[in-house]
Amino acid sequence: MKIRQIATVGAVSVLALSTQASAQTQIDWWHAMGGELGVATEAVAEGFNASQSDYVVVPSYRGSYTETMTGAIAAFRAGEQPDIVQVFEVGTGTMMAAEGAIVPVYQLMEQTGAAFDQTAFLPAVVGYYTDPDGNMLSMPFNSSTPIFYYNKTVFEAAGLDPEQSPRTWAEVEAFSRQIMESGAAECGFTTGWVSWVQLENFSAWHNQPIGTLQNGFGGLETEMTVNGPIQVRHWENLARWEEEGLFRYGGPGGGADAPPAFYAQQCAMYMNSSASRAGVLNNTPDFEVGFGMLPYYDDVAGAPQNSIIGGATLWVLSGGSDEEQAGVAAFFNYLSSPEVQAGWHQQTGYLPITQAAYELSTEQGYYEANPGAEVSIQQMTMNAPTDNSRGLRFGNYVQIRTVIDEEFQRLLAGDVDAQGALDAVVARGNALIRDFEDANG
Amino acid sequence: MQTKRTIFGNKGLPYLLLAPQLAVTIIFFLWPAAQAVRQSFLREDAFGLSSSFVGLRNYTRLFDNPEYLNAIKVTVVFSISTVVLALGVSLILALAVDRMIRSGRAYTTLLVWPYAVAPAVAGILWWFIFNPTIGIMPYILENLFGYDWNHSLTPNDAMILVVVAAAWKQISYNFLFFVAGLQSIPTSLREAAAIDGAGPVKRFWTITLPLLSPTTFFLLVVNVVYTLFETFAVIDATTEGGPAQATNILVYKVFRDGFVGLDFGSSAAQSVILMGLVIVLTVIQFRFVERRVTY
User: Fold this and answer.
1) What pLDDT sits at residue A347?
2) CA dist., res. B149 & res. A6, Å (int)
3) Where do the CATH 3.40.190.10 domains begin and end in chain A?
4) How many CB pairs under 8 A join A and B?
5) In degrees to the nearest 10, what's the CA dihedral of B45, B49, B52, B54?
6) From the CA of B153, how many Å to the nearest CA of chain A?
């Protein structure tokens, strides 16, 4: 009797609480932005929450990109998924194939009747995340592209023009030799993300296909084609330069050893994400940093084409109520407004995702005050993307990235030549793509 | 209301008292193990939207897969090297401490410290020391011995690094057992041998080592289990299985394929194989270790 009373009181109070809470619909957002980026991310959510009273976006940091994605998938399997999850670009193939698990952004906007103009977005960014009909599937959030950083102080000491970054790979080689011979630095250049910068972006930048069927955008039956003569030539050169000490390998994945080598002035040049700009400036108080576009081989027709992006987008997971979906749509609209985008872009170094945000940043004088901040956008928008330079979309690409790292390591260790390494990337990559096709076909 | 009797009757009481332990075992061990076995026969997409029964295909594919065979080879090399190094060094340390009369206790305390370091922290520590760009060891090796250390490219360097890091972690544990084992050897035996004219080396091989064998055998099993299953953090923090899978041991491959690659079927099949291995090791331990104790 008594227990029943308590239970009734309890149920009533729970009801009261939930009605109070349901005045504002809660939207869960899992992200992978730690540190300073995490603070900026939470500020975006707070800004949205303060701008209206119907919805509350609750961001929650879930670790690395891999952990966030795996966590969201595990949560989905248990029926406890968040409304929005941030997924890195190489997870795009996996997310896209999970048709019952996701709500494409264009569909969400249609269903909820939110105002939405896809043409306002930068094509080079959105192109990576559209289906073959050009519909936007996920919301670009943090996109970046690799750019070229160099040490102006070392350039000067080596007798090079500190205002001119090397335009071609031949210049990178010649500059490296001059720097090393003059003793200005002990190594020429290093790079983060070998797979992303020295293979994927390298191919797009030289208008070479990464895979069949428009780099995999055309369907799951795609096959990799990165063992073309241009890529082989570049990897051959990298191996030779590593042997001679011109190039220093920074390790697999993001290349954890590359930034310290540049910061410590061991290597004079460095290629990495445009979002590394803030980190580079913070860690290099002793010398002046120059910015440039990625180098290219000037005898390759069509180079330079345009670079491709990396980073992450926001995916909407299915299973949310109508109110939640409406809230997500409202949040996405807030997120892509010029003011929010320009603020995010300037604070983090990620690309602005809309034309308006770029123009607003220009108007605000951001690019004049911050040399090098515009390189990424110029490089992305240099030419209209071709089928080879829109991006790439392969299933199991997280593992294929590992395969690329492994074969690059075997190349540098001298176990295999460049042709053999890239042939192995293609063979092993295709096997993984077939596995994915099997499981999702 | 139920009476006390039906709840706490003679029949129910033992079950009730066992229930918490049984519940923990079932929820945290048996149920996940059963899930893994079930999953190992399925082929699923990452979200579990479509799944199909594929029989033993996940297993047969593993043994046709050069990467898996490589992982087995790597695991064998890694386990043997780590166990030999961890047992050898800790035995030498224990023998040294055993000869100390006053300072033995202080050394014992100091030598146990590494065991308190979390595996991930230990991994980061070694990563720093051996980092090719900023580490102190590559610097010393280069300048004193002219050896170009680079574990991110040279498979042997990477293997040495993970073996040293994993063994370092286990030395304290082994050391404690060896010290205790040595103390339980009657001094009179060694004294008698000394009076008969046996030197320290002779005494070690004919008296100390045989009498230590139960401890050694127990530690051997514990260390093998350690290298197979608990070295995940060390690998993850130092080499991540690289370069080119040169340090990709079986348990790390389960993680890579399952959590990074989202290939749950293959990952489950691999963990079922590992489960079989643990069962075999446990049987060995109970059958032989228990028997060898009666010397």
Assistant:
1) 86
2) 69
3) 23-144+309-369, 146-307+394-440
4) 84
5) 20
6) 6
Q: Which two tokens stand for residue B125?
A: 């520590």
Express the helix, strand and coil content of chain B in percent, nearest 5 each.
Answer: 75, 0, 20
H-run or E-run covering B61: helix B57-64
Give the pLDDT of residue A327: 93
pLDDT score, position B290: 64
- In order of A132, A211, B61, the CA distances from A394 in angstroms are 14, 9, 22
Domain B77-292 fold is MetI-like fold (1.10.3720)
Report the CATH fold assignment for A23-144+309-369.
Answer: D-Maltodextrin-Binding Protein; domain 2 (3.40.190)
Higher pLDDT, A210 or B286: A210
Contacts of residue A82, defined as CB under 8 A and 6 or more positions apart, other chains included, come to: A28, A29, A30, A60, A72, A75, A317
Q: What is the pLDDT of residues B217-258, one digit of tens each?
A: 889 888 998 898 888 888 888 888 878 888 999 999 998 888
pLDDT digits (tens, 9 = 90+) for A161-178: 999 999 999 999 999 999
CA distance B208 to chain A (A): 46
Largest CA-CA distance found in chain B, in angstroms, rounded: 82
- Domains of chain B, by residue range, sit at 77-292
Distance of CA A384 to the CA centre of its chain: 19
The DSSP output letter for B153 is: T
Report residue B291's pLDDT band, with 50, 70 and 90 as the boundaries.
Answer: low
Amino acid in the structure at residue A196: W
Judged by a CB distance cut-off of 8 A, whether residue A414 touches chain B is no
- Burial of A191 (C-beta count, 10 Å sphere; 0-12/13-18/19+): buried
Shortest distance, CA B272 to any CA of chain A (angstroms): 20
Mutate to test the interface with B, among A73, A187, A238, A437 (most CBs of B within 10 A): A73
Contact between A425 and A394 under an 8 Å Cβ cutoff? The reply is no
Q: Where are the alpha helices (DSSP H) in A61-133?
A: 65-77, 92-97, 105-112, 123-126
pLDDT reported for residue A12: 45
Return the DSSP state at A120: G
Looking at the complex, does the CB of residue A381 fall below 8 Å from at least one CB of chain B? no
Q: Which residue of B has its CA nearest to A409?
A: B153
pLDDT higher for B46 or A92? Answer: A92
Q: Which fold has domain A146-307+394-440?
A: D-Maltodextrin-Binding Protein; domain 2 (3.40.190)
Of B49, B133, B153, the CB nearest to A409: B153
Q: How many CB atoms lie within 10 A of CB B85?
A: 18
Average pLDDT, chain A: 89
